[in-house]
Design a protein that fits this description.
Elements: H1 2-25, H2 33-56
Helix pairs in contact: 1-2
Length: 59
């Protein structure tokens, strides 16, 4: 589970950077900047959900 949380955070950060760079340069990298930013939001929410799940159901 820790690996999945770390992977979601890393993918979210990379996606956030691509979205910010795409927004600043006004050139889309394969998709629009808003898609990268929404995907990074999804990754961060997923990581938070897994962390909360781990805290609640810790054995």
């Amino acid at each position: 589970m820790d690996l999945m949380v770390k992977a979601c955070i890393v993918i979210g950060i990379v996606s956030l950077m691509l979205g910010i760079i795409s927004r600043m340069l006004l050139i889309p990298f394969f998709v629009e900047a808003s898609a990268y930013l929404q995907f990074s939001e999804f990754c961060f929410i997923t990581a938070i959900t897994f962390m909360l799940y781990k805290m609640v159901y810790k054995k």
